[in-house]
UniProtKB/TrEMBL annotation:
GO CC terms of this entry: membrane
GO molecular function terms listed in the Swiss-Prot or TrEMBL record: G protein-coupled receptor activity
Domain G-protein coupled receptors family 1 profile: 147-294
Xref: PROSITE patterns: G_PROTEIN_RECEP_F1_1 (PS00237), G_PROTEIN_RECEP_F1_2 (PS50262)
Keywords: Membrane, Transmembrane, Transmembrane helix
Descriptive protein name: G-protein coupled receptors family 1 profile domain-containing protein
Family annotation (Pfam families): 7TM_GPCR_Srx
InterPro entries tied to this protein: 7TM_GPCR_serpentine_rcpt_Srx, GPCR_Rhodpsn, GPCR_Rhodpsn_7TM
This protein's record includes keyword Repeat: no
Keyword Transmembrane: yes
CDD domains for this protein: 7tm_classA_rhodopsin-like
Transmembrane segments: 66-88, 109-129, 141-161, 182-205, 225-251, 283-307, 319-336
Amino acid sequence: MPVVSDILHCDGHERITLAELAGYTTKPMPISGYNLKAPNMLFSTFRFFNGSAQIMNDAPGFEDSGWASLMITSAGVAGLIINSWILFKVLWQNAFGRSFGWIWVSRGIAYCCSSLMFTLFIGPGWYLYPKFLETDFGTVIYQTAIFASTLAIVSNLLIAANRCLLISIPFTYKEIFSERKTMAYIGLTWLFSIASIIIPFIIPACEDNSDGFVVYEKPSLDCSYIFQLVIFIAVWIAVMATLVADILAIYKINKMSKIRDALTSSQAESEVLRRGRERQLSMCYMIIVQSILCPMTMFSLCFGAAIPNNMLRFLLTDFLWALVDPIDGLVVIIFNKNMRTFNAFQPHSVHT
């Protein structure tokens, strides 16, 4: 397995690896005559970089980094278009109502922000200015993309919790997810995502000085180790809790539908209930698909760097990260009928 602190030598020049840009170390690293101190970036789950833009030069079909740049940029553009459409449907055509809609707005911002980083900076920079990845600004761009990915994960948890409580305890649901409380929950997801990036800047002792994946490190009471471990565990708890909440919601829907069918005598009323149940089931199945894809993607991003083939490593790490946004957006569109319709533009703001 490649050592994450390795520096690639290309054309006689010393180049920083993306692993170090992603936060494997905060030690000063000499690059082209100056020192770059790469800040900590999120958590070990997303530490999947083990090359630089120039590593593609060694892979068949990647004689220059143009193909890699085109693929990443294309994935970013696709994600931006798809998730902008979802955001449009939520904001201006009120696809998910008011309070629930605001959770989707937060989620949509996260996905659009991530796609925008790949479209405008990471993808083009891969080819037009490879040294972009070695700059402080390039590090900030990667931090922004990882922040957006974290926000998307915890937003999906909030969506799953919302649906689960609506189905399980409908009479107290509105109290738990009132408009004010919903905005507070959304604020907490943003605070968590921001804290996972910014705390090492505020508390220097929490800067990540390790040389590898957190689960392989020797346990210690250092702030750096504890911070990385807490974030690592928290994100995986969010992913698994999303899956559990959704499975529980599906179980409750099927159980309640049998009781309602037995008690409902009117065929018209039964049809209305059936359509409502199908909408909720579609939403739950959507979240389950996302909850399965998310850990699979995270495993690939974590361990794909160990693959010796450069092209395959690129596909399972950098390109897959860019591809996650359009895939997630397509899952939403496939499982939500109201996302697949294009009505005449009659805006119904989420505010109403």
